[in-house]
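Example 9 (inverse folding). The structure is encoded as follows.
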C-alpha cells in the first residue's frame, strides 16, 4: 500500500519506519524536509514538502498535533485527494497552560473536525491511545492489547484494520467502536493515559480487553 505520513515528529517518523518494515511504500510529508536528510538516508524513506505529497497515496496518516491537523492536512493537499483513507492518530493535547488538557469539548473530536473539513475523505481514528513505539510494534508488549478504531466508512475501516493486523495487532483486540463520534471517547482516554503513565513511570504500556 502507498502511505504518506504527514508530520515529522517522533510519531510520524516511527510509524513511517514501522509500516515500511512491513512492506508498505511510505513517504513522509514535512514542511522542512531538509531537516530530515540524514534520517531519510538512513531509513530510505523519502521526505517531501507537503504540496502534492498525497498524489500517489492510498492512505494518509495524520501524525500532527490535533490543533494543527486541519492546517497540516490542507497543506498536504487532502482537499484535492478525493476519497483517500485518513488514518488519524492525533490527539488534541494542549500544553500551553502547563498541565496537559484537551483543546476539544466533550462533544467534539479532532477526528470529526478533520472529517467535516474534508467531507470526501474517509477518516478512521485509531492508534492515538498508545505510545509511538507501540503503534507499529504491538508485539513489544508482553501480551496482545486493545486497539480502538472508529469511522463512518466501513471499507476505510477495513483498510485500516488490515494495516493494523499487518503490523501485529490481534484481530480480537481490535475494537470497532462504530462511527466517528467515538473519536470523542478515544481522544478523551488520553487524560487517563497520561495519569497512568505518571503512575506507572513508563509510556510503554497498553490496556487489554477481557471478555467473559
Ligand atoms: N508521542 C506519542 O507517542 C503519541 C502517541 C499517541 C498519539 N500521539 C499524537 O500523534 C501526533 C504527533 O505526535 P508528535 O509527538 O510526533 O507531535 P509533534 O512532534 O508535536 O508534531 C508532529 C509534526 O507535526 C507537524 N506540524 C506541527 N504543527 C504544524 C502546523 N501548524 N502545520 C503543519 N504541520 C505541523 C510538524 O512536522 P513538520 O514540521 O515536519 O511539518 C511536527 O514535527 C500528535 O497529535 C500526538 O498527540 C502521540
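The amino acid assigned to each position is listed next.
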Amino acid at each position: 500500500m502507498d502511505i504518506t505520513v504527514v508530520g515529522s515528529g517522533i510519531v510520524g517518523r516511527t510509524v513511517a519506519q514501522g509500516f515500511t518494515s512491513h512492506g508498505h511504500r511510505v513517504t513522509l510529508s514535512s514542511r522542512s524536509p531538509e531537516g530530515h536528510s540524514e534520517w531519510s538516508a538512513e531509513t530510505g524513506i523519502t521526505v517531501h514538502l507537503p504540496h502534492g505529497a498525497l498524489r500517489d497515496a492510498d492512505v494518509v496518516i495524520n501524525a500532527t498535533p490535533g490543533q494543527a491537523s486541519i492546517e497540516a492536512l490542507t497543506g498536504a493537499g487532502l482537499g484535492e485527494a478525493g476519497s483517500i483513507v485518513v488514518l488519524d492518530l492525533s490527539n488534541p493535547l494542549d500544553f500551553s497552560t502547563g498541565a496537559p488538557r484537551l483543546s476539544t469539548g466533550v462533544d467534539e473530536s479532532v477526528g470529526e473536525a478533520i472529517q467535516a473539513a474534508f467531507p470526501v475523505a474517509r477518516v478512521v481514528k485509531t492508534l492515538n491511545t498508545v505510545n509511538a513505539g507501540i503503534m507499529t510494534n504491538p508485539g513489544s508488549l508482553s501480551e496482545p492489547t486493545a486497539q480502538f478504531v472508529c469511522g463512518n466508512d466501513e471499507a476505510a475501516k477495513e483498510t485500516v484494520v488490515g494495516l493494523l493486523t499487518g503490523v501485529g495487532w490481534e484481530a480480537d483486540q481490535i475494537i470497532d467502536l462504530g462511527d466517528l463520534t467515538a473519536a470523542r471517547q478515544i481522544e478523551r482516554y488520553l487524560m487517563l493515559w497520561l495519569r497512568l503513565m505518571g503512575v506507572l513511570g513508563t509510556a510503554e504500556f497498553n490496556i487489554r480487553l477481557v471478555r467473559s
